[in-house]
Amino acid sequence: AETPMPLLYRRNFTKAPQWDFDDVYNQDAPPRPTTCAQSLRNSKDENFKKAFLPNIRLFLHKDNINMSEWNRLSHFNNPFGFMECKYDEVMASVKLIPKPKEPLLLPKPGADGCIHCAVVGTAGILNGSKVGAEIDAHDYVFRMNGAVIKGYEEDVGNRTSVYVHTEHSIAASPYFFGKYGYKSAPHDEGIKYVLIPEAMRDFRWLEGLFKGHEGYSDRLLTLPVFLYFLFVCLFFNHRFLKSPNLNKRFWAIVRPTNGAFTLFLALHICDTVIFNNKAVFEF
């Protein structure tokens, strides 16, 4: 029987290692059908078409990782893979993640067949913009990290459909953004949480969440939590944000921001996307 490969360590590489399976990704079949004429899936932009995989597998759960996949992902550091991670420790939490019963987002009934999304960043760009109502008018609103809303609704809206975070960001944001009135992650009706596994602590956090350990929000326990599939993080890094810093000695800390991951998530599950009130791609 296949067994976990020996651990690889970041310290043994002076730059990001390259493998012959760097640009190989798991895909779900078939791609999500769309009746939306202006969908990003119909984009004529050649660079976007070359990089985009409409049916790439986005989320990890107990039924979609085997030993072969584990060993392949073990060649990449977090949040792109399992480098330095022990199989039993990670799988203790992964085996608790149920297969999602439905897609992360569905087209709104009676609409134009499109999934329209807004991604709201946290850098303060929208302060004073008065586009809150326009943001809330989208089918779904994505936020991340310290999603400050209260008192700023006129600028950033007040709805949250998808909240993207790491263990660190969901725990530390009340401290860093407390001066703006931020107290906790959004808890809207029907909200979906998406966790980016950037370190072993994220898997331990997830295990504690599913097992109901003390210190976890009862409200959060009742809501769907999706674990960003690590290979999709790798896909975003390779196809969209290949940094020259991956060739430097500090390569292991180079990764897209949580905001960038959120934007790429929206691009792959929505038909139209605006980010901080600007269209990302126009059909």
From TrEMBL:
The keyword Secreted does not apply. Disulfide bonds join C117-C270. The chain crosses the membrane at residues 220-241. It is a single-pass type II membrane protein. Keywords: Disulfide bond, Glycoprotein, Glycosyltransferase, Golgi apparatus, Membrane, Signal-anchor, Transferase, Transmembrane, Transmembrane helix. It catalyses: a 3-O-[N-acetyl-alpha-D-galactosaminyl]-L-threonyl-[protein] + CMP-N-acetyl-beta-neuraminate = a 3-O-[N-acetyl-alpha-neuraminosyl-(2->6)-N-acetyl-alpha-D-galactosaminyl]-L-threonyl-[protein] + CMP + H(+); a 3-O-[N-acetyl-alpha-neuraminyl-(2->3)-beta-D-galactosyl-(1->3)-N-acetyl-alpha-D-galactosaminyl]-L-threonyl-[protein] + CMP-N-acetyl-beta-neuraminate = a 3-O-{alpha-Neu5Ac-(2->3)-beta-D-Gal-(1->3)-[alpha-Neu5Ac-(2->6)]-alpha-D-GalNAc}-L-threonyl-[protein] + CMP + H(+); a beta-D-galactosyl-(1->3)-N-acetyl-alpha-D-galactosaminyl derivative + CMP-N-acetyl-beta-neuraminate = a beta-D-galactosyl-(1->3)-[N-acetyl-alpha-neuraminyl-(2->6)]-N-acetyl-alpha-D-galactosaminyl derivative + CMP + H(+). This is alpha-N-acetylgalactosaminide alpha-2,6-sialyltransferase. The lineage of its organism: Eukaryota, Metazoa, Chordata, Craniata, Vertebrata.
